[in-house]
Each structure stands twice: as C-alpha cells, then as structure tokens.
C-alpha cells in the first residue's frame, strides 16, 4: 500500500459511518451536494478574511458532503443523469467560491501579482474540467492529466492549514496549465488517429496513473516538498514571511 493509499483508507473509516448515517436518515444525495457547496462558500469567506485555519476546517466539513453524495446515491439507488449534472455543476461553484475568496484577500492586501496568479489558477482549473467534458463529447474518454479537482481541494486545505497558500497556488496554476494542454493534445491525437508519444516524458504528459500508486505518490511528494520547503520570502507570499522550514539550514 502506498502512503496516499494508506491515508485514503484511514479517511474512509469515519466516512463510512457518515455515509451509513446519511442512508439511514434518508437524506437525498442531491441535498448533500448542495450542503457541501454552501459550506464551501463559508470557507471562501474565511479565506477572504485571512482566517486560513478556520477556512481549512470548514473545507474539510464541506468536502465530506462532496465526497459522500455519490456514495449515498449508489447505495440508495438514486443515481441519475440529473444527479451527475447537478454534482458537476455545483462543484464548479465550489471551486469558483474558494478562488474568489483568495482573490478578494489578495486585492485587500494590495497584492496585484497574486490577484493575477489566483485568477489564472481559477481560469485553468475550470478549463481543466471543461476540456475533459468537451473532449468526451467527441471521444470515448479523456482522463489524462494530474491536476483534477480532488487534488486541487486537498492542496487548498494543505495550503490553508500550513499557511502556504502561495506555494499551493503556483502548483495548481502550473499543473492546471499542463493538464489543459495535454487534454487538448490527447484529443487532437485521438481525433486524427495519430500515435501516442512514448517514453517517460510522454507518460508524465499524458498522466494516467491512478491515485494510490507509486508514481502518484512520487508526484505528491515533489509537490509537498515545493509547498513546504520553498521559503515564503522567495515567492513573495502575501500571508506568510520568513524562510520557512529551510530557515535552520540557511542560517
């Protein structure tokens, strides 16, 4: 078992109890989806107020609802095409709310550079989902690219909990640009019956490794190393200062 797999397995223990309780209470999965979005709006407000720890805790609660809605729908047999549409649409509202909270914060702090970074991260994050949805109206499947919604949300929570949101935004922006680009490239190749590139670089470009695998763990470790080890001063973090975890080594 990989370390991300172990974390996922540990998180499933309390989530199973919440899922079972929701099923027992007869809560409709579409209502769970709506509750999750509304709670994420509250998290966005706390981000805008620079209360990152509280925002992270609220996001954790919100994304419990976001995770269990599909499980409850499956168990209760209430899966539907509208439910899938509802879930996907409200997910976009959650994403937009969280990014908007950060944009508001950076605007209030007068940090126009990070207003732009957060805005671009928002644009490419939304385009990541759109590119896949549009591609799959033309080809059978376009599940390539690393930076999908679960990764973005977990990174948001990590950034808020550890006050390293600036590093998180750079990771989301760069990997979202790569994900959008490779989904466009992949769709082009499939539609034109062209061969897929081979080699390790192509494997990263057309990322298709599942979560909780060794390649996935390696990328996660690299991301966390960047977020936690790059000193806030080096990237002009608007909410954190100093040399971070590298300070003892740089003295």
Q: If you had to describe this structure to a student in words, what would you say it looks like?
A:
By secondary structure, this protein is mainly alpha-helical. The protein is built from 10 helices and no strands. It has helices at 3-25, 29-48, 52-76, 81-108, 112-135, 149-162, 165-191, 200-205, 214-229, 247-250. Helix 1 (3-25) crosses helix 3 (52-76), helix 2 (29-48) runs antiparallel to helix 3 (52-76) and helix 4 runs antiparallel to helix 5 (112-135). It is globular. The protein starts with a helix and ends with a helix.
Q: Distance N terminus to C terminus?
A: 38 Å
Q: Residue ranges: pLDDT <50 for 5 or more in a row?
A: none
- Helical stretch count? 10
Mean pLDDT: 92
Residues in helices, as a percent range: over 70%
Radius of gyration: 19 Å
Strand content: under 5%
How do the SSEs run, as a string of H and E? Answer: HHHHHHHHHH
Shape: globular
Describe the largest sheet.
none
Count of extended strands: 0
Structural class: mainly alpha
How would you summarize what this structure contains?
The protein has 251 residues and is an all-alpha fold. It has ten helices and no strands.
Highlighted features:
251 residues; mainly alpha
């Amino acid at each position: 078992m990989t370390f991300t797999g172990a974390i996922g397995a540990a998180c499933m223990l309390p989530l199973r109890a919440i899922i079972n309780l929701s099923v027992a209470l007869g809560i409709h999965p579409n209502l769970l989806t709506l509750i999750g979005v509304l709670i994420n709006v509250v998290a966005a407000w706390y981000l805008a107020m620079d209360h990152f720890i509280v925002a992270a805790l609220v996001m954790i609660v919100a994304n419990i609802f976001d995770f269990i809605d599909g499980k409850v729908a499956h168990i209760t047999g209430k899966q539907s095409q509208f439910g899938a549409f509802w879930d996907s649409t409200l997910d976009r509202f959650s994403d937009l709310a969280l990014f908007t909270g950060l944009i508001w914060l950076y605007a209030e702090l007068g940090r126009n550079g990070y207003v732009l970074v957060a805005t671009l991260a928002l644009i490419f994050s939304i385009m990541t989902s759109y590119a896949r949805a549009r591609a799959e109206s033309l080809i059978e499947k376009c599940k390539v690219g690393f930076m999908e919604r679960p990764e973005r949300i977990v990174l948001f929570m990590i950034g808020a909990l550890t006050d390293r949101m600036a590093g998180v935004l750079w990771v989301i922006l760069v990997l979202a640009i790569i994900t959008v680009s490779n989904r466009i490239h992949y769709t082009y190749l499939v539609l034109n019956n062209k061969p897929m590139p081979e080699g390790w670089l192509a494997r990263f470009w057309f990322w298709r490794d599942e979560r909780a695998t060794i390649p996935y763990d390696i990328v996660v470790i690299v991301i966390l190393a960047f977020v936690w080890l790059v000193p806030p001063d080096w990237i002009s973090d608007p909410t954190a200062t100093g040399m971070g975890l590298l300070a003892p080594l740089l003295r």
